[in-house]
Design brief:
The structure is a single chain. By secondary structure, the chain is of the alpha/beta class. The protein has 2 domains: 49 residues, Orthogonal Bundle (Helicase, Ruva Protein, domain 3), CATH 1.10.8; 107 residues, 3-Layer(aba) Sandwich (Dna Topoisomerase Vi A Subunit, Chain: A, domain 2), CATH 3.40.1360.10.
């Protein structure tokens, strides 16, 4: 990379540390930034610093926010008796984009994975217990991923909250809309058969 000026090489190296960005893409992005106006480059750098300065975890749901509580937790239009448990802030965003859920959220920031040394104390489970223990939540929807870790986390939480009055439910899983059965794995098909419903 000796053919680029040191400052450009430094930018390329920083960009290539981003997930999914290799050296070629980092170079393309760096050259784009170089060709951009000074105002655009300044706006990009300021927005990066602003995110680092302002974004934190909501003290109630542990989603990403720049106010505390976050806009969702503070909204008077949300159903405060239903909490949807997700693994990551990106899962919360996906559910919100669907418009299918109008309750509150709880972000665990991961899933149980004993092989990787992630146990209940490494997730926001204690905080979830505190929320459920106050007795205002009537339903807990477990919307963890349908992989091994997500299923283990859902099973653990279902057991953990058995003694509480809140109803514990699990999001449905199975055959996605528009998919072809021959391309699906056995677990997905099996789950779809187990959770079939009457029409």
């Amino acid at each position: 990379m000796g053919y680029y000026p040191p400052s450009l090489v430094r930018l390329i190296k920083h960009l290539s540390r981003l997930p999914g960005i290799g050296e070629k893409t980092a170079t393309r992005l760096a050259l784009h930034i170089l060709r951009s106006s000074y105002e655009d480059a300044k706006g990009l750098s300021e927005s990066i610093l602003e995110v680092k300065d302002r974004v934190r975890l909501c003290s109630k749901c542990f989603g990403l926010a720049d106010t505390d509580p976050c806009n969702l937790c503070a909204s008077p239009h949300r159903d405060r008796t239903i909490v949807c448990v997700v693994e990551q802030p990106s899962d919360l965003v996906a559910l919100e984009k669907s418009g299918a859920f109008k309750g509150l959220y709880h972000v665990l920031h991961g899933a149980l994975s004993p092989m990787n040394g992630i146990g209940p104390d490494d997730l926001k489970i204690k905080e979830l217990v505190t929320r459920v223990a106050d007795g205002k939540i009537r339903e807990l929807i477990l919307a963890t991923n349908t992989n091994v870790e997500g299923e283990a986390t859902a099973s653990y939480l279902a057991q953990r909250f058995k003694a509480y009055p809140a109803r514990v439910t699990r999001i449905a899983s199975g055959v996605p809309m528009g998919s072809d059965l021959k391309y699906l794995d056995e677990v997905t098909i099996s789950r779809a058969m187990e959770r079939r419903r009457e029409l």
